[in-house]
Design a protein that fits this description.
Structural class: mainly alpha
Largest sheet: none
Number of helices: 8
Number of domains: 1
Length: 163
């Protein structure tokens, strides 16, 4: 079980990359996202959200157990939370559109590093919940920002994508 926790929490070893392991995990999160992306539309949204919720609950449990193994609060080796956050950042965005995936990736990383309110304070939550919650909020912020941009782009007749 210990090996299983380490493999999942480090997202198959990515957490062991010494520099920017969270960024690499977010980048590699695109691959499993593409497997579930077909459900990321209005018609199949409940399925997509159920998949994201299930993955998030697993991430919370795995992160909680990994903190005990690594004997460290929110160890840089634990990057499964970045995957859950990225999945959330893509909710109801065009699933296979590269510009949305790139935008979600960069905005998610910006919010995750910057940690605007209440992201930073959510890290005070105990165990795996604290590890994962800050990334979920960063994912929500990224998703919300992109949806605002898409809405404004629509209102302005597509002028924003020309920037």
């Amino acid at each position: 079980m210990r090996k299983f926790i380490i493999i999942l929490s480090s997202f198959f070893g990515i957490g062991y990359i010494p520099i920017a392991s969270g960024t690499f995990a977010s980048l590699f999160a695109i691959l499993p996202y593409l497997l579930i992306a077909r459900f990321n539309n209005v018609k199949s949204l409940p399925i997509y959200l159920l998949l994201v919720l299930t993955f998030t609950l697993i991430a919370i449990w795995v992160s909680n157990e990994a903190e005990k193994i690594f004997n460290e609060k929110d160890s840089h080796k634990i990057v499964i939370d970045e995957v859950a956050g990225f999945f959330l950042s893509m909710v109801l965005l065009p699933a296979y559109n590269v510009k949305y995936i790139i935008a979600a990736f960069f905005l998610f990383r910006i919010y995750d590093v910057w940690k605007p309110y209440p992201i930073r304070s959510s890290q005070e939550l105990k165990g795996g919940l604290g590890v994962v919650t800050d990334d979920l909020i960063a994912g929500f912020y990224a998703c919300f920002t992109i949806h605002i941009f898409v809405f404004l782009n629509y209102i302005l007749g597509g002028m924003l994508w020309m920037l």
